[in-house]
Each structure stands twice: as C-alpha cells, then as structure tokens.
Design goal:
mainly alpha, 2 domains, 10% strand
C-alpha cells in the first residue's frame, strides 16, 4: 500500500533519497553499500542458519540507483538522477510529478533538520 500511496515510488527509494540528502548535508562525498553476495549472512558462520531465510536483493536496488559495482561493494550516487520530463510517457507525467513532489518535500525536510 505504501508504494501505491506514493504514486509508485518504492519506500526504500524514499529512504535512500533522504539518506543521500543527509550525507550531502554532512559533507560525505562517497557512499558505498554491500551487495547481497557479501552480506554478513552469507559468511561462513551464518551459512547454515540463514541460508533459507535471506531473500534481499540489494544489487538490483543499487543498480536501479545507478550504483556502480566496485569489487565487493557498490559505489552509490550522492544524488539520485531523475528522468527528464520529455522521456516520460505523457500518460505517466502527472504520476511522476507527484512522486518528485514527495521526494522534494523529503529533501527539504532533511535539509531543514540538518542546518
């Protein structure tokens, strides 16, 4: 329901935008994230305990943000690029405007808190 209420915007995308904004406010230039293949639950000590329960696909999400794989980690953008309005089909533009309005509101709130 959260995705539907946010006009198709995934909650994890909203969280990442808020996180990236906070990192910018703190002058953090680089953001790195682990892939599911290098998650702590993939380590030998958890191999048999968590083998059937770990289902997260971090890599897919990092790549959707234009993250670049660097060895065992993903280098993530400090600002997520948005689609150009002309590249969005006309029947979807209103939905994207609403999505971007939500993201802009989150960014403004995070920036106001970090001052």
């Amino acid at each position: 329901n959260a995705t539907k209420d946010c006009y198709g915007l995934f909650p994890k995308r909203m969280l990442y935008e808020a996180f990236a904004t906070l990192m910018q406010a703190c002058n953090v230039d680089e953001i790195y994230a682990v892939s599911e293949n290098n998650h702590v639950y993939r380590q030998l000590r958890y191999l048999f305990q968590k083998k059937k329960t770990f289902v997260a696909s971090y890599s897919e999400f990092w790549e959707s943000l234009n993250g670049v794989k660097k060895g065992a980690l993903y280098h993530l953008p400090s600002q997520v690029m948005r689609k150009a309005p002309e590249s969005i089909p006309s029947k979807k533009r209103a939905e994207y405007r609403k999505r971007y309005h939500i993201l802009d509101t989150i960014i403004q709130e995070v920036n106001s808190l970090s001052r």
